[in-house]
């Protein structure tokens, strides 16, 4: 089970309270290219014109925001997954230059780089290098009104965020295994550059009967963001060529978490799966039955795997046994797991 903030720590962690400067932030400070990116402000002139229109809709006391926001500006990719243009070229150019500069300086000055998670070896937590205030300003002024409109419960308020860059290219990380985020609402915007492949695949919700059924494969576009609940299973498909980097903001709503709805209690929250999982939705990090369906990829061999999903009683065992003899020994393996 994941550790959750208690109600007490919730109160103590409201974002306006100061965060200590990290070593990385202190060391990088003299090298900053664009001081405006490190201020407690997100300049409206950095928004894509589509997002200005979306954002303006929330400034008016509209009774029905849906009518105020044209469908072509806010695209419903599927139930609970939305995409929209958000940043313009001015912002993208500045932000990318700053991040690339940080990577160079971190090497030459030996600045410690904190990676976003154990599955990502080339990203960086941007909150740790001084960009937290600007992202908080963006979150509170622009992202929250839209998120609350789309996800009234999970985005009733945003108290904090975990924000980071992910990066994929040949010889580095190729993709990101299927997972759910420690986020209530996830904002994920493509920063560039040229690439093929590197799509983002979505499956069902954490614990649901169809949590490993493929629902959507989304093609990233530079400057365009996708917004979804953190508890939806998703993963980045392997990049074929070029380089892709994205900025990801995991938005945290402590009041929502305190209600225990998103308590990530694996054993009690998983329902019996409705069918054989879609291959793209399998996770080599989390799924106990991965090898029943697929060979482990190279990336899995570098991990200390502790797979747990689906919990006993929630797997496809019964369905699987009826289906196919060609799986042979794999069925035995699956049977042993359940
Ligand atoms: O690469 C992407 O677009 C998604 C990355 C992701 O889901 C994550 O870092 O949590
Ligand atoms: Fe994710």
From TrEMBL:
One function term, GO molecular function aspect: oxidoreductase activity, acting on paired donors, with incorporation or reduction of molecular oxygen
Keyword Transmembrane part of the UniProt annotation: no
One Pfam match: OGFOD2-like
Every Fe2OG dioxygenase domain range: 159-253
PROSITE patterns membership: FE2OG_OXY
Source domain of life: Eukaryota
Cofactor list: L-ascorbate
Tagged with keyword Plastid: no
Protein name in UniProt: 2OG-Fe(II) oxygenase domain-containing protein
Organism (species): Skeletonema marinoi
């Amino acid at each position: 089970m994941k550790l959750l903030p208690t109600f007490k720590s919730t109160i103590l962690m409201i974002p306006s309270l100061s965060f200590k400067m990290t070593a990385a932030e202190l060391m990088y400070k003299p090298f900053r290219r664009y001081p405006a990116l490190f201020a407690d402000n997100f300049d409206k002139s950095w928004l894509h014109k589509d997002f200005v229109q979306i954002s303006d809709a929330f400034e008016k006391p509209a009774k029905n925001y849906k009518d105020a926001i044209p469908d072509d500006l806010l695209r419903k990719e599927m139930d609970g997954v939305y995409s929209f243009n958000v940043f313009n070229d001015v912002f993208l150019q500045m932000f990318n230059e700053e991040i690339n500069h940080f990577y160079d300086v971190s090497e030459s000055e030996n600045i410690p780089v904190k990676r976003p998670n154990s599955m990502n070896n080339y990203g960086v937590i941007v909150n740790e290098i001084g960009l937290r205030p600007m992202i908080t300003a963006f979150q509170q002024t622009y992202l929250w009104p839209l998120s609350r409109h789309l996800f009234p419960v999970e985005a009733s308020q945003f108290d904090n965020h975990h924000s980071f860059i992910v990066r994929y290219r040949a010889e580095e990380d190729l993709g990101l295994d299927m997972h759910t985020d420690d986020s209530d609402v996830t904002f994920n915007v493509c920063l560039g550059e040229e690439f093929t492949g590197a799509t983002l695949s979505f499956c069902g919700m954490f614990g649901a009967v169809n949590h490993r059924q493929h629902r959507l494969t989304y093609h990233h576009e530079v400057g365009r963001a996708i917004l979804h609940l953190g508890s939806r299973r998703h993963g980045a498909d392997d990049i074929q060529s070029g380089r892709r980097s994205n900025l990801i903001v995991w938005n945290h709503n402590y009041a929502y978490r305190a209600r225990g709805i998103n308590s990530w209690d694996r054993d009690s929250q998983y329902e019996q799966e409705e069918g054989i999982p879609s291959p793209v939705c399998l996770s080599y990090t989390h799924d106990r039955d991965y090898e029943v369906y697929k060979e482990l990829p190279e990336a899995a061999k570098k991990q200390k795997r502790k797979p747990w999903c689906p919990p006993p009683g929630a797997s496809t065992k019964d369905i699987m046994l009826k289906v196919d003899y060609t799986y042979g020994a794999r069925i035995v393996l699956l049977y042993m797991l359940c």
